[in-house]
Each structure stands twice: as C-alpha cells, then as structure tokens.
Specification:
Order of helices and strands: EHEHEHEHHEHEEHEEEHEEHEHH
Number of strands: 13
CATH architecture of one domain: 3-Layer(aba) Sandwich
Structural class: alpha/beta
Strand order of the largest sheet: 3-2-1-4-5-6-11
Oligomer: single chain
Length: about 350
C-alpha cells in the first residue's frame, strides 16, 4: 500500500534530494517538481540507487501559475508540500534582486493559490539568516527578525510573513517553517550531495573542491573577530539530520498543530572556520592550504541555534557530528570526480 503522497519542490537539489530519500525511508511517497535550474536530472536515478524506488518527477517552473494549478488539480491525493524550490546565492541576490523576488515569492504564492481549496500541510525551507547578527546566543525562535542583510534573506522573511498571514485566515492550511543553520555533508552512500554551480559560496564545498584540486588556496575571511580563534562561527548541521527534520515536521503537521509554527534546525553549537578546516583534515587525512584574508562584507561574527523546541515538539535531534559531516562531504567530492553529474 503506497504511503501518503508529499510534493517536494526543488526535490533534485541538495537538501531536497536528501529529504526525498528520508521520506521514502519513512514510508511516504514523494513527488518531485523541479525546473532543474540548479540541479541534475541524474539525481532521480541516484535516489533510486539508494532507496530502490524511483520517485515521480515533473519538470516545470512553479512560477508558472497555470502549470502549478494544473499539476495540483491533477494530483488531488497530495497531502503535503515541502517547499525547497528557491534561488539561494546571497551574492547573486544582491546583483539581481528582482530575479530573486520573482522566483522565490511567485513560486510560493502560486502553490498557496493552487492548493487553497483543499487541506494542505506545508513545510517551508527558511533560514537562520532572518536573525541577522543575534543579540544573544544561542538564538531561539523568539529572537527578533532583523532587517535582512541580503535580498535572499529578505525573500525568506517575506515568505514567512506570507505563510503566517495565509495560515491565519485559511483553516485548510497548516505550516511549519524550518529555519536552517548551515547544512553540510552528504549521504553515506556518496550518491547524492551538494552540487554547487561555479565557484562555491559556502565553506565546505570550497574546502572539498580545494582538496581535490579544483580550487586554489582556501581564503579565511578574517581572523580578528571576537571568537575563540578569531574566525567566524556557524552552526553546521549534517544534511541527513536536516532531511530527517522535514519528515518529523510533516508528521507533526498530521497531528493538531497551530496554523503556523517555526523551528530552528541545527546542532545547538557553533564551530569556527578554522575548526571546520582542521576537522576536515582530521576526518580525511588530507592537508589543506589556506591563507588569512580580509573580512568579507556582510559576514556576521557568530551564530548558533537553540534547538530545544524542535527536540521537544518534533522528537528530532541532530545525531551526526562535524567529523562525519566532513568525511561524507569528501566521499561525495571524490565520487563526482569519478562520476560527473
């Protein structure tokens, strides 16, 4: 008997593909919609290699209101949506803000309009960027949402507002927004992982690409911050733990939740840039070359999350540590060198 059908938008992407795997493992029937603007169609086959099941896949752009409505009308048995589909480069969002507002907001609004007449549970992919530089640490869900540092961050803030206001007046809609910290790592099979286009904007894929020879020296942006070793601190979470949080959120929505709720998803502790570099060296035996550069504009000093609410309500807890994050990311980097996607 097939499980409950869950639409995963952006399901061939980094976090989306890992979540599809965990949904299948949990007995759900994920259906993927992705326009492949930032991912590879081969990921569908990789998911099948891991799980033994090939999820249904539909290639279209959710910014197309007509196609989005036709799709949902043709699939009345979809009971939940996990919405990942969004552009996510902070730097690009500053150069092309309208591209980000159009894609990240239209796709969400179209989904809400197309499903407004039926009961729908939605898990939304949000971000800890909404907190900015926090006033105190660890930052919890009651912390103020500050003016966004980027257009990308602002699209997450706006999306949360849209969801909160819509769920307040539409009794058919229940929403959980998951505010991620810093997802890293890859599936233990090394068959799926992060596939950045061009030069990676995030630390760990840049580390793995440098280690395998795709990049030059790693530049650490500043070593004079007020932290234990002078480098910025972030809450890094293994992408598989993050994927499992989405399954936990879907299960929570099947109960009797409030119309709109927010959860931090992280480990509850921070690691500095240098700690991540040294953890990679320890986990893999690979020596990294890095230099200290100037601070990067817009970087906050440190942030890590209070995740007690997610642990309590969702019965979820991050289980994988920094060494497992680094070793799995390295195994994935080696895999895609031999098997380009």
């Amino acid at each position: 008997m097939p499980g409950k059908k869950i639409l995963v938008t952006g399901g061939t992407g980094y976090i989306g593909s890992h979540t599809v795997v965990e949904l299948i493992n949990a007995g759900y029937e994920p259906v993927i919609v992705d326009n492949l603007s930032n991912s590879s169609p081969q990921i569908i086959d990789q998911i099948m290699k891991i799980t033994g099941k090939k999820p249904d896949f539909f290639n279209f752009d959710l910014c197309d209101e007509k196609l989005t409505r036709q799709f949902l009308d043709a699939n009345p048995d979809i009971e939940g949506i996990i919405h990942f589909a969004a552009f996510k480069s902070v730097g690009e969002s500053e150069k092309e803000p309208l591209k980000y507002y159009k894609n990240n907001i239209y796709s969400l609004v179209n989904l809400l309009l197309a499903s407004s007449e039926r009961r729908m549970n939605m898990v939304f992919s949000s971000s800890c960027t909404v907190y900015g530089e926090p006033d105190s640490l660890p930052v919890n869900e009651l912390a103020p949402v500050k003016k966004a540092e980027s257009t990308y961050g602002n699209t997450k803030q706006i999306a949360e507002e849209i969801l909160s206001e819509t769920a307040r007046v539409n009794e058919n809609l229940k929403v959980i927004a998951l505010r991620y910290f810093n997802p890293v790592g890859a599936h233990s099979s090394a068959l799926i992982g992060e596939l950045p286009i061009g030069v990676p904007q995030n630390l760990v894929p840049f580390i793995t690409q440098a280690a395998i020879g795709k990049r030059g020296n790693i530049i650490v942006f500043g070593d004079d911050y007020d932290t234990n070793d002078g480098t910025c601190i972030r809450d890094y979470i293994h992408v598989v733990d993050l994927a499992k949080a989405h399954v936990a959120a879907i299960k929570q929505l099947e109960g009797e939740p409030v119309p709109f709720d927010i959860y931090n998803i992280g480990t509850g502790r921070g690691n500095s840039v240098l700690e991540v570099i040294h953890a990679f060296e320890k986990a893999t035996g690979e020596k990294l070359n890095y230099t200290i550069g100037p601070r990067r504009p817009g970087d906050i000093i440190q942030i890590y999350g209070d995740v007690t609410k997610a642990e309590r309500d969702l019965s979820w807890k991050a289980e994988l540590g920094l060494l497992e994050m680094m070793s799995s990311a390295w195994e994935w980097e080696k895999y895609i060198k031999q098997n380009p996607l």
